[in-house]
Hints:
This protein is mainly α and 92 residues long. The protein has helices at 2-17, 22-33, 45-89. The termini are far apart.
Amino acid sequence: MLALGSVLVGMTGYHLLAHFSWIDSFLNACMLLGGMGPVGDLQGDVAKLFAGIFALYSGLVFLVITALILTPVFHRVIHRFHWDASKHESGE
């Protein structure tokens, strides 16, 4: 849901502020969210400001989604580590 919402926000911003077509707006939003970078040339300060803010936002979204996906894995590894440590401390 976070990724879909972010694509929609990016598409809307690129379409309204940079005057890109909807398909070009989709491409730019997805490329930024995927970490690849923008595709089209931006004209105007407002469009460039939006693209910069959206790029920073995209980096944060990438980190959040990665953390959400990897949290259960890290939790399991840490849980297992503590379980093994407590076994060794009790002398078993």
